[in-house]
Write a structure and sequence with these properties.
alpha/beta; 7-stranded parallel sheet; 179 residues; 7 helices; 18% strand
Length: 179
């Protein structure tokens, strides 16, 4: 399965890098392909390294203004002209989406896939990996949107909240009929 991971390119604390490495190892050992922003820095590098070490494939989608940070070795690397094209390519090359810890770029990518899903423009499974409670506030906001009628479909149809990589991957594999 081609699994797109939206995540930070920042250098982060061990409380985020350790679970990211563990999840990457699960992806690689499971024979999955990582589809990611292509950067060879920060948490993106941690995940790409882990998938590669565990035997998985790497498909990167960088963007022109970040091309200098692109991973020099990947099974495939595409360079998009802008962020909008990058998101479209990431989604087009993936079978499922995992949202890991990140900043505004990750949040932008997350809301885009959820908006597409809300309107029935994709049926790809989406997992929000809530490492160390990072997304507790966002989860609460989404639940409020659901409870107060702001979402035309149930929140559970849009995203699965996972507390660890094992639960995230199990959900994706079950959704794809892999298990």
């Amino acid at each position: 399965m081609n699994i797109c991971v939206f995540l930070s390119a920042a250098d982060l604390d061990e409380r985020y890098t350790r679970p990211a490495r563990e999840f990457a190892e699960l992806l690689g050992k499971g024979g999955h392909t990582l589809v990611w922003g292509g950067s060879d820095v920060g948490l993106m590098k941690v995940v790409a390294d882990g998938v590669e070490r565990a035997g998985g494939r790497l498909v990167g989608v960088s963007v022109e203004f970040l091309q200098a940070r692109a991973r020099p070795r990947a099974d495939e690397m595409v360079v998009a002209k802008d962020l909008a094209e990058r998101k479209a390519l990431l989604l087009g090359k993936s079978d499922a989406i995992v949202i890991m810890v990140g900043g505004t770029g990750t949040l932008d990518e997350a809301t885009e896939i959820l908006e597409l899903k809300k309107h029935g423009l994709t049926d790809k499974p989406v997992v929000l990996l809530n490492t160390d409670g990072f997304y507790d506030g966002l989860k609460q906001q989404f639940q409020r949107m659901d409870e107060e009628g702001f979402l035309p479909v149930p929140l559970t149809d849009l995203v699965f909240f996972a507390e660890d990589g094992v639960a995230a991957l199990a959900y994706l594999e079950e959704s794809a009929g892999v298990r």
